[in-house]
Amino acid sequence: MNGVRCLVILIMLALLPATGHAKWWIFGQSENEISTRYLYLNGISYDELGDRVTIYRETLENGQVTLRGKAATSSSAVGSVQVSLNGKESWEKARKAADGSFEYSFRPETGKKYIIYVKIIDTAGKTNDVDATRKEITISDQNISALLRQAMDELIAAYRAEDPARFMALVGEDFAADPTVLDRAIRRDFTLFDNIDLRCTLNNVTAANGKIYAGFTFSRKLTSARSGQTLSDRGASEFIFTLGEKGPLVSSMKSPLIFGLSDASNVATGTLPTDGQTIVVGSDGTVSLGTPGSGTAAPAGIDVVSDLTVLPDPPQSMKHHQITLTFTTDTLLPYTVAVEEATSPSGPWLRLPASGITLMNPTTVRVMSTNIASQGIFLYYRIVIVKDAVESRPSNVAVWDNR
Questions:
Q1: Would the CA dihedral through 162, 164, 165, 170 be positive or negative?
Q2: Which residue ranges form the domains of the chain, and what is each CATH number?
């Protein structure tokens, strides 16, 4: 009888699909124990860039392309991080800190194609899913930044002139949050703000999948039409443009928003980390300094939520039932955690019902959703801490392979 059982087990193992997309070891141990908590290419989220990327030479800082990230393991420590520029033919070590953060820079040649992979090796000799980090990068000499600066100057001029029609002419029909939502938010801005003084500087430009990713820093001063108080702030934001016959058109914007602050939760598609407070608009129209995306000033005790990642989940039998997220925060309990889910890294974001969220410990949350149960696709998550009826800004975005 034991011999028959062994034979059946061997046959079942032989019939298992030998695919490179397999996510689990035979006995339920996740093979994806090593991951990146975050990864950026020249300041742009690595996951959002797609497979083929164009970088404009004029935007390179010191003429270099830079990868920055933070590696994480579920058991062993991170041993080393290596980067290949030639499709795995050779590898070079990245600079790595004790906490797993790493950086790698290289000086590219114009017109040359670079096939990039990132390999994270733990002290037990295991690696991440290296193939999932593949990027095909080329360097262009095209002067795209001049077009983007001109587009931003026109947007600012229309905004300061409180001319919504002129402003919306510079927004694409594919705007992620729906152009009508942005139009309404812009018009409400004009009723809430007076004496708008806004300046922007283009910092980096990257192109991928037919879109142009542009990072801007801004400084701003305005007066609340209700209170008469003058507020000023500065920060960094990211735009995505599509390039058509009319020039660059805005496709999406991240928080902290430069335009459309009065409906930030519906206009912004993602949030960038920021060290300070920026101008926000509450649901009652109150203009104040606060955390981007919250719509209200954050009191003491609400900390930045960061390092969100998906932990290796329960055995294969539970794969399409739930996931576990871990994060970093210095906020003290009691607080609740709200989880937002999307099928694209840039949203739109749907806040999951509290019934599907379980806080396992102060920095670990278990999540159940309809998409996890039924959709064999990549799913994206971010979280918000809620304390005393005030929300933190959204965390970074974590991705889960639900296929």
A1: positive
A2: 24-140 (2.60.40.650), 144-290 (3.10.450.50), 306-401 (2.60.40.10)
Query: How many residues belong to the chain?
Result: 403
Among the listed residues 127, 195, 133, the one whose alpha carbon sits nearest the alpha carbon of residue 161: 195
The edge-to-edge listing of strands for the beta sheet with 34-41 is 44-45, 34-41, 65-73, 101-106, 95-96
The three-state secondary structure class of 396 is coil
User: pLDDT, tens digit, for every residue of 263-294?
Assistant: 888 898 877 766 677 898 887 788 888 766 54
Judge whether 204 and 275 are in contact, CB under 8 Å.
no
Residues 6+ apart with CB under 8 A from 353: none
At 123, the amino acid letter reads T
Neighbours of 5 (CB within 10 A): 9
This prediction has a pTM of 0.48
Q: Are 217 and 203 in contact (CB under 8 A)?
A: yes
Encode pLDDT of 127-182 as tens digits: 998 998 999 998 888 778 888 999 999 999 999 999 999 999 999 988 987 899 99
Cis before 273 (ω within 30): no
Q: Phi-psi region for residue 63, left (φ > 0), alpha (ψ -120 to 50) or beta?
A: left
